[in-house]
Amino acid sequence: MNTIDFSIKRVNLLIILISSLMMFVVLNLPVKAKPFGDDFSFHAQSKNLAAYIKGDIAYNQVYITKAPGPVIFYTLAYLLAPSNPTDDQLWIFAVMATFIISTVSLLLIFRIGSNLFSKEVGLLAVLLIFIFPIHAYYSLGILAEIPAFFSFSVALYGWSKVLQNPDKIKGWILLTFGIWFFILNRPNVMLILGLGILILIYAFFKRKVFFRTYGKKLAVTFCVIGLMSYGTLHLAKIITGKNSGENPESLFYFVAHQGRFQFRDEPTDFRFWDNDVRADSKDYQNWGKSGTELSILMEKTHKSSNEVYRSFLINDALEHPFLFTRQFIVKCIFGHTYFINSVKPKDFHIGPFHGGVLYWFIILVINFVNLLLILGAFIFLFKEKNLMNYWLFWSVIAALLIFHGLTYMEPRYMFPSRVALYIMSAAGLYKIKWIQNRVNSIAKFVFP
């Protein structure tokens, strides 16, 4: 066994061991992700699809009304469960699956950093994740976050292989699969294909070497991903048919309508958007009033909800350009801040320690670490001379900020892009001599 193989195996074992420890710690914290998501939707749809495949229920109970990616992922996990499982049993299978792919994602993140920069940068990227293990938190809920995180890790790993050798098909296959599955988990990220085309147009005129090396293959990749994504999303509609009255378009307008009142008159109210947390909020109350008014309008005009909501969204943006712009900026900031909404400050506790002081101290530490990550990413972006090679890193952040800044934002919607953020931040922070020396000291143990 040579030194390189031993080093890689050692870091793999360390990542798996620390990931397991993180999951155990987060599992025993008083703050947890909702086990079945906000509305049980991914769990219910995956449960029914798995039961139908096993022959336990009829086809008319199968439907996919949200992103199909999580439904596919959790269905595969549920197929391994025994017959007639309880929801709690299915949750265990789901968490086992999310733990596996979140750990695989960390292994890939190390390799991406190593492929593009150095083993030390790859190690630092993983260490940054362990300092703020938000992935472990999301792994304990049946949500879209971890499948999306995993799929984008695969995409970035594929691109790192392409940069190493653009003539090998392996990197292109991984890149295609990763972005395709990422879109299935977060359809709103399809904007990345549009940004990719703009990047290719720019490269054609300004970055000839990049275009000659990657341009044609990237163009084909974007077309294939677009066709695969459209086909899969359309197939989900066909599968659902009339089995459910919900549809993705109506859900989009409902969420975008929420977004028109998010930070509208209360730009500093970062509380979670639900009745339990902010029933006293002016923006939240105005959103409810607007929904009632739109329902009355639908009855009077006999127009569909999609027509009425679409008209409201367009007119409201045109009539209030200042509010629209300010909301966009605040949403982009909010997408990179973290608060604990599942418990009130006075009820927060860790072991024998409890109370509001502890709550706000934890919030301060979490957001300080997050600011450090963002600082590292900015250092990288400002100092890196060939940002075209890292288009996938910064374009995914831009795509998510644009979409959710214009519609509705929650920090978890930005979570999949943290794969890129961790790696860019590690590459940037490693340029700081003090951090570089500390990482090198740790690397001597990990890479003997």
In words, what does this structure look like?
It is a single chain. The chain has 448 residues and is mainly α. It has one domain (3-446). Helix content is 72%, strand content 1%. It has helices at 3-27, 41-54, 68-78, 87-116, 119-131, 134-138, 145-164, 169-185, 191-206, 208-240, 248-259, 275-278, 282-301, 305-319, 321-334, 356-383, 391-406, 411-414, 418-429, 433-446; strands at 349-350, 353-354. A two-stranded antiparallel ribbon has the order 1-2. A hairpin with a 2-residue loop joins strand 1 (349-350) and strand 2. Helix 11 (248-259) packs parallel to helix 14 and helix 16 (356-383) packs across helix 19. The longest helix is centred in the middle third of the chain and has 33 residues, at 208-240.
Backbone shape: globular
Spatial gap, N to C terminus: 13 Å
Which blocks of ≥5 consecutive residues have pLDDT under 50?
none
Summarize model confidence as the mean pLDDT: 90
Strand order of the largest sheet: 1-2
Estimated radius of gyration = 23 Å
Layout of SSEs?
Layout: H1 3-27, H2 41-54, H3 68-78, H4 87-116, H5 119-131, H6 134-138, H7 145-164, H8 169-185, H9 191-206, H10 208-240, H11 248-259, H12 275-278, H13 282-301, H14 305-319, H15 321-334, E1 349-350, E2 353-354, H16 356-383, H17 391-406, H18 411-414, H19 418-429, H20 433-446
Antiparallel strand pairs: 1-2
Helix pairs in contact: 1-4, 2-3, 4-5, 4-7, 4-19, 5-19, 7-8, 8-10, 9-10, 9-17, 11-14, 13-14, 15-17, 16-19, 17-19
